[in-house]
């Protein structure tokens, strides 16, 4: 992202001085597992492009196959064009773009949508940025079937999985945004939870952290309500800190939940 921004800044300065400039294609590909920040970065990128004058509006319109492809003949073109219209002046983010291509069926309506997208990527470059997002291996395969898509995309960014200590740092950031404070001794418990959760199905990086934070806040509320409203501690008065605190016990509930579950049968949040 930094490299792209640097190029755009330099290009702008060159243009001001009357040098030859050629903005490379701004179309982008974001690859990585769920919850690695692809959508978040697309939104930020839109804002950056708008601020720098490379995008008129900088908003992001999120589209999946269902938004672009119809069920019946003649329905696909209008659907795809409608989404493109909404995204004009900003970014059209096609999530799991590879679902547009069906290798087993060359009459799949997705093909029609792909052709329209390729067309606008070529002819409306100056007013629409198309970004595709999804798993890296599937995206590579998609590009191999649709080389025209690959050649129109100037920027490929891969989003690695977060490491467990990065996910702990993210929990700290999220707590701050939500105006909570994680007790210092609670981080170890959260780290333990994340390490266990990473081994289970449907782990999704920072999105799993977001879900864990939601559950921890719920546990904090239950704990605080019980302490003051039910048991009447401190004459029933709780402090501001009580309202903000996420404690080790609030995360321990999540750890216990994994430890006590029949892993074969359960799907975890
Ligand atoms: N580095 C990060 N710091 C803080 N929050 C993050 C970070 N990366 C992702 N998130 C959060 O994780 C969630 C999932 O991110 P998202 O961008 O939707 O992932 P993706 O599109 O790759 O599935 C969002 O709530 C987002 O705010
Ligand atoms: Mg996403």
UniProtKB/TrEMBL annotation:
Q: List GO molecular-function terms, semicolon-separated.
A: ATP binding; ATP hydrolysis activity
Extract the Pfam families matched here: AAA, AAA_lid_6
InterPro entries, per the entry: AAA_lid_6 (IPR041627), ATPase_AAA_core (IPR003959), CbxX/CfqX_mono (IPR000470), CbxX/CfxQ (IPR000641), CbxX/CfxQ_RuBisCO_ESX (IPR050773), P-loop_NTPase (IPR027417)
Domain annotation ATPase AAA-type core: ranges: 29-160
Entry annotated with the keyword RNA-binding: no
Q: Which domain of life is it from?
A: Eukaryota
Q: Where is the CbbX AAA lid domain?
A: 184-251
Keywords of the record, alphabetical order, are: ATP-binding, Nucleotide-binding
Q: Which family does it belong to?
A: Belongs to the CbxX/CfxQ family.
Protein name as catalogued: AAA+ ATPase domain-containing protein
The organism of origin for this protein: Thalassionema nitzschioides
């Amino acid at each position: 992202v930094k490299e792209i921004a640097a190029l755009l800044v330099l290009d702008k300065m060159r243009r001001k001085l009357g040098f030859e400039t050629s903005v490379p294609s701004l179309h982008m590909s974001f690859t990585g597992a769920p919850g690695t920040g692809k959508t978040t970065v697309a939104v930020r990128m839109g804002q950056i492009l708008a601020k720098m004058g490379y995008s008129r509006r900088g908003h992001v319109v999120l589209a999946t196959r269902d938004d672009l492809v119809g069920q019946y003949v003649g329905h696909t073109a209008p659907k795809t064009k409608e989404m493109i219209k909404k995204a004009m002046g900003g970014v059209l983010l096609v999530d799991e773009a590879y679902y547009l291509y069906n290798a087993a069926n060359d009459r799949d309506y997705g093909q029609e949508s792909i052709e329209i997208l390729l067309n606008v990527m070529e002819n409306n470059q100056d007013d629409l940025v198309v970004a595709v997002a999804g798993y890296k291996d599937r995206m590579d395969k998609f590009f191999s079937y649709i080389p025209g898509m690959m050649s129109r995309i100037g920027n490929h960014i891969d989003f690695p999985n977060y490491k467990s200590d990065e996910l702990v740092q993210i929990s700290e950031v999220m707590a701050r945004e939500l105006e909570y404070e994680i007790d210092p001794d609670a981080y170890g418990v959260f780290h333990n939870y994340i390490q266990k959760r990473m081994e289970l199905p449907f782990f999704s990086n920072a999105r799993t952290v977001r879900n864990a934070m939601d559950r921890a806040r719920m546990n904090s509320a239950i704990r605080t309500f019980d302490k003051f409203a039910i048991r009447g501690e401190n004459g029933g008065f709780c402090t501001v800190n009580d309202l903000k605190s996420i404690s080790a016990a609030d995360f321990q509930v999540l750890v216990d939940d994994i430890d006590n579950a029949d892993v074969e049968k359960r799907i975890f949040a």
